[in-house]
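Example: Helicase HerA central domain-containing protein.
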Amino acid sequence: MTVRVDMGTDERGAPVTMDLEELLATRLLVQGNSGSGKSHLLRRLLERSAGQVQQVVIDPEGDFVTLSAYGHVAVEAADYSEREIARIAARLREHRASVVLSLEGLEAEGQMRCAAAFLSAMFDAPREHWYPALVVVDEAQLFAPSAGGEVAEEVRRASLSAMTNLMCRGRKRGLAGVIATQRLAKLAKNVAAEASNFLMGRTFLDIDMARAADLLGMDRRQADAIRDLPRGAFLALGPAVSRRPLTVRIGAVETSARSSSPKLTPLPSAPVENMQELLFAEPEPDTAPALPFDFDPRPRRVPAEELEHTIARPPLPTTAAPPPPTKTDEEVEAIYADVLRAIVEDAESTFRPAGVLFQDFQVRCRMAGLARPALDLPGFTRRLSAARAGIFTPEAEEWADAMALAHTLPDDMLGAFLLVARAAREGEPCPPDEAIARTYGTSSLGRVRRLLGYIESRDLFVTRTDLSGKRSITIPRLGWTTAASEAA
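Written out as structure tokens, the predicted fold is:
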């Protein structure tokens, strides 16, 4: 099915259309200085193709939320966590919903982090959800910068990687990138180079004009035409719109942005004397705020002695919040066990540093009603190692001897020792190298073999391998032995 989107008219008044199916296969780049009409162009494209294809808009300024009139769901990113944003992105691919992700209210780093999580979740959707979708990214230079800025390098790389995946590898997943930027020079080249359709608006800087002319196949003299384009007019080229550069005057739209360009309005004609009276008039008695102190409108310099006295003044008495109800040792241990079980069951926690997981542990404990966990970071690290071995109550009497032996090893080896000890105590097969590697926080089986050799050199393990290659481990000081099983 061929669907052509009416974008406007050319210089002769003939309609200019865009082949939607071709656009989905070849992607689009829109460039123009501020005020050239980029957002108007994107709005025209979205309105005229609504109902024909799923649409997803990354909106840094919150201007496109008015597309809700066409059935788009507005998602205010500031109201959700990064994980929730990723979950929303996965669901919209499954249900083919058109969405406007408004990043208004977030700082630049927060916008980049949110967009990276959102685009990555869309890109990683399962194959059965690879439906065609237009993914419109306004102000793309924010999310795919050509050089590092004031944001953290980790955030910049994540955002750039997500944009690169969208433009370079998104076609096979049904994702058609439509990116708009004010400055081609600020946009990463590997992101811009993947677009096959171009709409170039008014541009004044030589470096941007040169890149735009190069993309349009124009020489340097012809590039001056880009500077002379009126507002709302674009030079178009690409398989989805035209095989030769042509000027397109973008047509009208039905919705409008929440913010608009400033318009000149007449200034008040009141005499200067009257204006002074209005500016310096006393507040009306019934509308004046009731202040708890005498207010002198005249500015004054506070003497240093008075300022020091104010700082040294004892704070006003406050009503202390009621202390949280005390918990018994059994209740505290139960909370520890539940929180550690939740952390260990999270597959992403395997290779996270202990310091990061300790913060997660403290937050979860407070949510469970334990105001301040008694564990410090070293104590948490030992409890986490035991939990990864499946032992959530290491203080229990049946584990006293095993824990005493484990504490003779470095803390990072405690989990591997206890994993083998638990299997030996219960007569289960010897844990494979992969399971021991997870408790040790590594993916290297070589490190696991060196670890077992070190523990055996401390006379804590005795390893036996039978003729069939199956391994069993004995803990001689405890008299426990695992059943034989494959090592890896």
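The chain has a mean pLDDT of 81.
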